[in-house]
Amino acid sequence: MSSPSIVWFRDDLRLADHPALRAALDRGEPVVGLYVLDEESAGIRPLGGAARWWLHHSLASLADDLRARGSHLVLRRGAAASAVRSLVDDIGAGAVYWNRRYGGPERAVDAELKDGLRSDGVEVESFAANVLFEPWTVKTGSGTPFSVFTPFWNAARNLPAPREPLPRPDEVPGLRSSPAGDDLDDWELLPTRPDWAGGLRERWQPGEAAARARLREFLDDDLGTYDAARDEPSAGATSLLSPRLRWGELSPHTVWHAGVETGGGTGAHATSASRFLSELGWREFAWHTLYHFPDLATKNWRRGFDAFPWPALDPAHLTAWEKGETGVPMVDAGMRELWHTGYMHNRVRMVTASFLTKNLLIDWRLGEQWFWDTLVDADGASNPFNWQWVAGSGADASPYFRIFNPERQAEKFDPRGLYIDQWAPDSAAREPIVDLAATRKAALQAYEAVKRAR
Asked: Residues in domain Photolyase/cryptochrome alpha/beta (predicted)?
């Protein structure tokens, strides 16, 4: 009698370069895929609306891919430990495999479940799959976590090179019939009242096949101009791979080795490849920071920043920022792009975040939460990490006195106004809700409280 293997999919919705899936196949028993929508375990952050939209379509794609290869994806909702144990009991599973997660609550869930299943005689193994370097392997000379990116990345690159990605299996032998599970539509991940996802449908096609196609398209057609044009939001020079990495439709190992191979040699192409790969390094640094500081989304990484005197919230200012109605064209264009597509160009993310925290003097946590709800690529590390970087409270943070002037940013990176004309052509006719010079001065004065608290 067989004892099937369960592969517990999480933020790794792919078949290629999936070490947990490979382990299950090597075990030689039928394989059952499982995804758990966990909104109950302690500390697990519920997904935002745009993320739920992406998840629905990526799960549908993964289910199709498994079915085409002979297996099934079982969907269950609830606390992960209970859901996994329930499926183990239902099918008499002899092994459970997953790829590791690095957030504090997620690690706690995984560790407790691993111990419990092993005590019941079930084989359980976890694997490195979703970062290039496990967070505990990159350490300073004194064995402490890094707080500055450049030495972190230098140390990481001195470690053994990231492993080669595993091939995608042609077959995934499963059970004759799928175990009981939820219907994806019953999870109601898609917006209906109202359906605000039209722009997301126009912009994105979730799923592993589309992710691999986009990686190839970027490397073949756009990599050569990446270094020169990546800061221009109208240039179309960025990879658009961030949601693919967030949901694990591509592994960072796949992206890394494809970038190294394509960017070999010298000249502009090699320079662009090096710059692109360093952005993977920035993602690694975010996960490194979250692993060592699990409260990244709710607490200042720099504790001295707790002294910052955030004024009483002006709800009208927050709403104007969220809706892209500030009267500041670059800010409004970015916020409207975000609402329509679930995405925003990285340069504009910095501009809009700086405007919220340093011109409107609104706590970075409110902006982080808005991005969490509206970005298709918001993950538990990069989203709060980047917000704290802009706010000045995070690891290797931008100095607080570096306040992005949205008008100068538009002149430099959107000189012909193409991006602003696309997303906020009416914004220039509006009266700005704040004076940029006066609010910059007020922000610098408020920061004096942080300096005095050192």
From this structure: 3-132
CATH number at residue 250: 1.25.40.80
Instruction: Clarify whether 282 is annotated catalytic.
Output: yes
The catalytic position among 112, 261, 310, 448 is 310
Residue whose C-alpha is closest to residue 89's, from 175, 174, 4, 178? 4
pTM: 0.96
Q: Domain limits at 264?
A: 131-161+208-292
**2 vs 209, residue with greater confidence:** 209
The band of 266, judged by pLDDT with boundaries at 50, 70 and 90, is low
Query: Is 217 marked active-site?
Result: no
Q: Does 383 participate in catalysis according to the annotation?
A: no
Band of the pLDDT at 57, cuts 50, 70, 90? very high
Q: Tell me whether residue 310 is one of the annotated catalytic residues.
A: yes
Q: Check 53, 98, 301, 364 and give the catalytic one.
A: 364
Structure token digits, residue 120? 């019941």
CA distance 224 to 170: 33
From the candidates 125, 134, 346, 407, which is the catalytic residue?
Answer: 346
| Structural domain contains residue 197 | no
> Active-site residue among 370, 372, 387, 423?
387
Does 247 participate in catalysis according to the annotation?
no
Does residue 326 share a domain with residue 445? Answer: yes
Q: What is the pLDDT of residue 153?
A: 96
User: How far apart are the C-alpha atoms of 193 and 173, rounded to whole Å?
Assistant: 40
Query: One-letter amino acid identity for 365?
Result: R
Catalytic residue among 106, 279, 322, 337: 279
- Which residue among 40, 196, 282, 407 is the active-site one? 282
- Mind listing the pLDDT tens digit for each residue in 167-181? 999 999 999 999 999
Q: Distance between CA 65 and CA 209 in Å, rounded?
A: 9
pLDDT of amino acid 401: 80
